[in-house]
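$ ./design --mode recover --in tokens.txt
reading tokens...
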């Protein structure tokens, strides 16, 4: 009787363990917005990807005296939502409202147009902010 009980317990435990392995993994929760930076976890609206032509910064406003949200290295991919006329950087007053990926969040901010490979400033088809 003890052997039968031990065998039944072992079979039940093995079945439960295998059932847990076969069960689909729960979906990962969507990333919450980063309230400190105001970034959202959704993908940027514009599918066009642009790249920085040199190391630059992403700012909270269209001036180099504003707080730096993040540093961008040369060749960093970013998305452009719109453009803004701001402080002149090397003779260019066009700034783009850009979105970049940082860790688990999208980070939004202003990047000087002088440092993005848009072809011309403001880039045709990009709306004004």
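writing sequence...
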């Amino acid at each position: 009787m003890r052997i039968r009980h031990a065998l039944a317990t072992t079979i039940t435990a093995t079945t439960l363990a295998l059932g847990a392995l076969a069960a689909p993994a729960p979906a990962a929760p969507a990333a919450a917005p980063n309230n400190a930076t105001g970034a959202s976890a959704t993908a940027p609206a514009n599918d066009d990807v642009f790249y920085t032509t040199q190391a630059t910064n992403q700012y909270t406003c269209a001036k180099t005296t504003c707080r730096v949200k993040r540093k961008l290295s040369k060749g960093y991919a970013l998305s452009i939502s719109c453009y803004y006329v701001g402080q002149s950087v090397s003779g260019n007053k066009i700034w783009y409202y850009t979105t970049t990926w940082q860790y688990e969040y999208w980070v939004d901010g202003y990047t000087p147009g002088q440092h993005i490979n848009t072809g011309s400033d403001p880039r045709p088809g990009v709306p004004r902010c």
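exit 0
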